[in-house]
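Many introductory courses stop at the sequence. We go one step further.
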Amino acid sequence: MTSLKNLGSQLLNDVGPSVASLYTFRDIDELAAFLPEDVRLTPLECEPFRCQSAFLNLGAVQFSFNHVNRNLYATGGKQTGFLSFSMILQGGGKYGIENNRLVNEDYLFGFDPNRKADLVFPGNCLYCAVYIQPDLFDAYAQAMDRLDLDGKFLATNYAYIADSFTPLRSYLRQIYTLLIKQSGQLQNQDFQQIILQDFIPLLIAALPVKSSSQNDAKFLRRSCLVKQANDYMQSHLDQVLTLTDLCQALGTSSRALCYGFQEVFGISPMSYLKILRLKAAHQLLKTAHPTTITVTESATRYGFCHLGYFSRDYKQMFGEIPSETLKKHY
């Protein structure tokens, strides 16, 4: 059997210096650009956004921690060339939704490399994602005689690990604490080697030999309906769209749609549509030159007929009035 210590030592020789970074984001688009995944982030509350992000890059193994103050929805591609293992590291029992599955602190999820990221993330929680190169994960799995951790296992995308999570959670919290304190230990190669030798065996040991989770078919149907509604809204942001229009386009009832949105996103369909339109207007005002567009034009483009209400909601969500956004980037 291959030595786990040797695997860690060989890995360290193949990677460059580690990169440890700590940021605070108040712009959700800047957070999306920072994350390793190619994701689109949508806030689910019309309130100011804040996220503290910590990242440790050891080359073939990377750790990402994000503490977000608001509920948000993340969709898009995963980091190329890596397996992604995600978890709610600290959530106070709150549930998120990953690819139609309810998840909380007892679950590991998102590790199917052929499935895009699709996560409703609860606010005021610490979210952790670990990225591991597939060849390295396979080598450790073989060394630990875990041949069950193959492509079939990864395709499940979801594992209940409450009974085995404590050592893994504790280790990740230690790494997060060191990042928050900006500890110099993280730049020490001997310390990096300890992380590389210790972490993947902890992760593999936490994974169940056989997954035993049941899917709520009713919830799955509602989640799929909400995704269809989201896609339709995203492609019709510049058009008049009522709840009746949306239901007719999707072939569903207003009751089913409202119930689904409340269950998945915690808000109504039209509240979610307003957030999408505010976000689109914000993006436009951030990138446009003040001589090429006005606040009124940006508001009406995305369906806001009353400029006063638009400015009020905009300031509530972004902490500044629309004209300030338009001016401050030039």
